[in-house]
Structures are given as structure tokens and as C-alpha cells.
Design goal:
The complex is a heterodimer. Chain A is α+β, with helices and mostly antiparallel strands. Chain A has helices at residues 15-24, 27-43, 112-121; strands at 8-9, 11-12, 45-46, 50-52, 66-71, 78-87, 90-100, 123-125. Helix content of chain A is 27%, strand content 28%. In chain A, the strands form 2 sheets. A 5-stranded mixed sheet of chain A has the order 2-7-6-5-4. Chain A is globular. By secondary structure, chain B is of the alpha+beta class. A 3-stranded antiparallel sheet of chain B has the order 2-3-4, with no helix packed on it. Classes of the chains: A alpha+beta, B alpha+beta. Chains A and B meet through helix 1, strand 4, strand 6, strand 7 and helix 3 of A and strand 1, helix 1, strand 5 and helix 2 of B. Strand 8 (123-125) of chain A pairs antiparallel with strand 1 of chain B, so a sheet runs across the interface.
């Protein structure tokens, strides 16, 4: 539970990126994501919600300068990934991706970290089997 | 090749006018028509937001100052 004294970081949600993430989400995922977005835009994201991403994650994603928050807190099945950036000398969270943290083992659908990794790497993985809504893990 | 392992380098374009901004070419049809999608790369997001990437030193400074108050890394990604 965040305390009133703990640092919070302003968060920006790029609308095009948000729309792309929402389009992939289930209704439950969208609801959870919207609640987190509302809180982070209104009050900032408390530092205690954040975890540093692995520069070289186990799935091979390179999420340098990135942090994540589980959604909903404290241990929800979804993840929101942000890049820490600077604007006018101050730190800010730039929203990169939202999605499930883990898919079922046989699923090849990208999770939140895969989506963020694609955006950081500026390449896109196209699922040639067609777009399927993702299922929460 | 696995269907989901088909990665491609995208071609970026910038439009001006009523629907200006950075886009990527998602599809090039045989008749020459292009299907565009908003560019949601991290670089384009930063550009739209007027922010900049942290240097390696700034990232280390961030971790030094705030890392102890964050949750520990989980090894997920």
C-alpha cells in the first residue's frame, strides 16, 4: 500500500499506444488497465508499485530503462510496462505496453514484455496466424 | 519459420496535414496502396511526448535513488 510520503512519478499514456494495447486486451484486462491509468494519471505512479525490468529478460526482450507494474496491484495477472524518460529535467513514466504477464505454456501470443520489447526495439512481430484476443493467464 | 517469429523492420513515414505524425507501413498491396498504422515505437512515443531517453548514468542514478523503494526484480521480463 503506498504511503502519502512515498515518491510518485507522473505517467504519460500515449493515446495511439494505449489504443493498440486496448485492442489486444480482454474486457477484464481493459477494465483493470483503465483503473490503473486513471490512478497513475491523477496521482502519479507510486514507486512501491514499480519493479525494474530485466535489461535482458528471460524471453530475450531488451527492456533497458524500463519498469513495470502488476495490474491490478499487488499481484494481478496483467503487466504495464513504462520507459523512464526525462522531460524538462524531471523523470516521467512513458507508457509502452499493457498485457498479460504470462500466457498458457503452449501459447505463442506476445505478453506485456514482448510487446514492450518490440516497441523499444522498433520492430514489430506480426502474428501471421491472425489477431486473437489474448486470454488472461 | 514459426508464424510468430516473423519479425520485420518497419518503414516509417511522416504525414502532414489533418492526420499528421509518424506512421509505419503495415502493408503494401499489389496495386500500390499502403496501409498505415500509428508508429508506437518507443522513439515515436518519446517524440510525441517531448521527452528524451535516459543516459546510462541517469538510469543508474535512478536505480540508486529509487531502487530500494521499488519491488525487487521478478525475472519475468
Amino acid at each position: 500500500m503506498p504511503t502519502s510520503a512515498e515518491p510518485r512519478f507522473p505517467a504519460r499514456f500515449d493515446q495511439d499506444t494505449w489504443d493498440a494495447s486496448s485492442a489486444r486486451s480482454t474486457p477484464a484486462g481493459r477494465t483493470a488497465a483503465q483503473a490503473a491509468r486513471r490512478e497513475y494519471e491523477r496521482d502519479g505512479a507510486p514507486v512501491s508499485h514499480l519493479k525494474p525490468c530485466e535489461p535482458e529478460g528471460r524471453d530475450g526482450n531488451n527492456l533497458e530503462n524500463c519498469v513495470k507494474a502488476y495490474v491490478p496491484q499487488p499481484n494481478g495477472p496483467f503487466g504495464m510496462v513504462f520507459e523512464i524518460v526525462k522531460i524538462d529535467g524531471r523523470l516521467r513514466l512513458e507508457f509502452l505496453a499493457f498485457g498479460v504477464r504470462h500466457h498458457p505454456k503452449r501459447s505463442h501470443a506476445p505478453n506485456a514484455y514482448d510487446l514492450a520489447g518490440q516497441r523499444v526495439a522498433e520492430i514489430t512481430a506480426r502474428d501471421l496466424r491472425g489477431e486473437e484476443p489474448e486470454a488472461p493467464g | 519459420m514459426s508464424p510468430v517469429a516473423a519479425h520485420q523492420q518497419l518503414v516509417h513515414v511522416t504525414l502532414s496535414g489533418g492526420r499528421g505524425g509518424r506512421f509505419v507501413i503495415e502493408e503494401e498491396r499489389p496495386d500500390g496502396r499502403l496501409v498505415l498504422a500509428p508508429d508506437i515505437s518507443a522513439a515515436a512515443i518519446r517524440e510525441r511526448g517531448g521527452s528524451r531517453r535516459l543516459t546510462a548514468q541517469e538510469w543508474q542514478d535512478f536505480l540508486t535513488e529509487y531502487g530500494p523503494q521499488m519491488q525487487p526484480p521478478d525475472g519475468e521480463g
